[in-house]
Amino acid sequence: MPFSRVCPFCNVLSTITKSDIQSASDFFYRDFADDTIYGLQTHVITCPSPECNKAEVFVQKWDTNNGEIIPKTFINFECLIRRWELEPEANVKVFPNYVPESILQDYKEAKLIVNISPKASATISRRCLQTMIRDFWAIKDKKSLHHEIEAIKDKIDTNMYDAIMALKSIGNIGAHPEKDINIIVDVEPGEAEELVWLIETLIEDWYMVRHDRENRISKIKSINTEKQLERKIDPYSTN
C-alpha cells in the first residue's frame, strides 16, 4: 500500500509505491531451548525523485508472533525487536553544505550513538545546540548556555524556548555528575532521539528557512531590476 515518506537523503516528501521497495527475508532460532522463530528482513527503499534516486537500506529483526511468518508491513508492527539503519547511517539526514560543518558533525555523532549511548548523545546534542545559538544568533560573551538561550527568548516562540531549555537540561545529565554520586539518572534511547529531532528541526527552521528566504528575496530583487530596465526606469526610483 502506498505511503508518504521524507527521503533521508534529499529531505523531499514523496509517495512510495511497491515498485520503489525491495525486500528479502531469512529466519533463525535463537537457540534450541527457545521455540520462537526470529526473522531478519532487509529493505531497500529507492527515492522516486529523479533528482535524488538514492536508496535507503535498513534491516529489521522481529519474532514471528506465534506463527505469523511474514509481517504485512515493515512499518509499525508489534513484533519488531530492533532496526538497523545501514544507508544512510542511523538515518542521518543530509543537510546542505551552507550549514556549518561543526554543527553537522555534532548532529551526526549524536544521531549515530542514540542507541549505543543515549546519555552521551544527549550531551552532544546540547553542545550542538550551543554552537547553533552562538553562530546563527551571533550570541557572544554569555556566562553559560542558559544565559545564551535567555538572550534569544524574545526571538523564538514560547514552545520552542521551552523545548530548547529542556534539551539543555537533559544534556546536562550527561555533562555533569549529580551532587549525590549514588543517584543515577539515565537517558533512554527514545528520549535522546527526541533531542536529535529537535536539532534537526532547528537546522531546518533556522538555517534552511533563512537560506530559502534570502534566495527568494534576491530573486525578487533581480526580477524587479530586469523589469525596470525594460521600462528604462531606475529600479530603485521613488516613483
Adjacency order of strands in the biggest sheet: 3-4-5-6
Quaternary state of this entry equals single chain
Kindly give the count of domains: 2
Roughly how much helix do the residues carry, as a percent range? 40-55%
Which stretches of 5+ consecutive residues score pLDDT under 50? none
Categorize the overall geometry: flat
Characterize the largest beta sheet: strand count, sense, and whether it forms a barrel: 4 strands, antiparallel
Q: How confident overall, as mean pLDDT? A: 85
Helix/strand-derived category reads alpha+beta
- State the end-to-end distance: 58 Å
Q: What is the percentage of strand-forming residues?
A: 15-25%
Q: Which sequence of SSEs, written as H and E, runs from N to C? A: EEEEEEHHHHH
Radius of gyration: 24 Å
Number of strands: 6
Number of helices: 5
Question: Can you walk me through this structure?
Answer:
This protein is of the alpha+beta class and 239 residues long. It has two domains: 1-91, no CATH class; 95-239, no CATH class. The protein has five helices and six strands, in the order E-E-E-E-E-E-H-H-H-H-H. The protein has helices at residues 101-112, 118-136, 145-151, 158-175, 189-230; strands spanning 3-6, 13-16, 21-29, 37-46, 55-63, 80-87. It has a four-stranded antiparallel sheet, with no helix packed on it. A hairpin with an 8-residue loop joins strand 4 (37-46) and strand 5 (55-63). Helix 1 runs antiparallel to helix 2 (118-136), helix 2 crosses helix 4 (158-175) and helix 2 runs parallel beside helix 5. The longest helix has 42 residues, at 189-230. The radius of gyration is 24 Å and the shape is flat. It starts with a strand and ends in a 9-residue tail after the last helix.
